[in-house]
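Morning F.,

Quick status update on the modeling queue. The single chain you submitted on Monday has been processed. Sequence for confirmation:
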Amino acid sequence: MELAKLLAMPALLALLLLYLHFMRSKIRNGPPGSSGWPIVGETFKFISAAREGTLVRFIQERMERYDSRVFKTSFLGDPMAVFCGTAGNKFLFSNENKNVQVWWPSSIKKLLRSSLVNKVGDEAKMTRRLLLTFLNPEILRNFVPKMDTIAQIHINTHWQGKEQVVVHSTVQKYTYALACSLFLSIEDPLHDSKFSSRFHRFLKGLVGFTINLPGTRFHQAMKAANEIREEIKKIIKQRKVDLEEKRASPSQDILSHLLATPDSNGRFLTEIEIMDNILLLLFAGHDTSRSTLSSLMRYLAQLPHVYNKVLAEQVEISRAKGEGESLQWEDVQKMKYSWNVASEVLRVSPPVTGAYREALKDFSYADYTIGKGWKLHWTTCSSHVDPRLFANPEAFDASRFEGAGPVPYSYVPFGGGPRMCLGLEFARLEILVFMHHIVKRFKWDLVNPNEKFKYDPMLEPVNGLPVLLHPHH
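Structure tokens below.
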């Protein structure tokens, strides 16, 4: 009899979960859509579409079938409303801590722990303000010559003299070296390489079910995150000594800044908070830029007229400088066409698909009721490929960003509102400095002109984007 009760418990638990899932997804006058399978919802369809490079179609089909303003789905066990277009973006970005607050899948919460992505309310504002005092243009402008040096060393080491280069894995060496240097003052390539391989495992388990069993992506990601934290912990321990003995400056990198600077209430971040935020910055500071640079290399190979205009702009900037003189902040400000090209790359091939919020209370949107506790999702593709916002959206056209540029809330590769990506200026400098040197040194052809890109979870080329290099003489 006792055995029968024990055997029945899992079935009863499963039925309870099914019931709770059903009740949470049911709400009077909710947005139209499909909740998919019990518990898992449309999670596997979403992840499959991302990895097959058909995520735009996944979103557009549901916008056409249900409602182009907002539709219902279910993701990782939660009922979810997908907000679309400029109106959806504006609503979510401007209602932070009113109707909505930040939310991430449990895998991201567990991997990034006490970092900024998991902070809400005043705590989030103070942490963000603390990080932005280092990542603002006035501070970053002083690091442009250092970025320039790192880019040149990278190209001399990993591109010069090569006939063929696999772009995605190679540009990661640049973006990671830059992040390690500016955030931790690490200049050792061997250290960078060891760190970088761990971040690959970390990234692959970032979005998905939190099944922490050996062999799963999430287990590998947790293990990698803990290994990275241990490395950061050692660096923090030494840096505290160096700051105490004046061998390090409070402004030399973001680690020193966080150790030496209190928030607006006079509170210093704990060591755990610093570790988690450095982990976040290292991840965000190199993986999104790696994705963008890979896409940029693809489009510059496919569009010779765009490449030639970028090259002409960068050569003009070089001519105004002395032999061997490093790039300065003022030089980067002249790269207007090059940044328009990078911006168009971010429109047609954004490195991330969007982000998430959670409803703090029941509220009305687009004639529907969104229930408290529902998860909310905004997507880049719902506005980036809308022909009403971007004429002939499939075409690559850098002129879209001239003058006033796109209408508000239509172009959102960096998000928007109080949660806009705080690394935007860092990414801009990182991309433009690399563009300056790569186009001046090489032209290139794609080995696989029709190579597909997929989201896993960042946008990446399926085969790494191998290219044939042709050095300029």
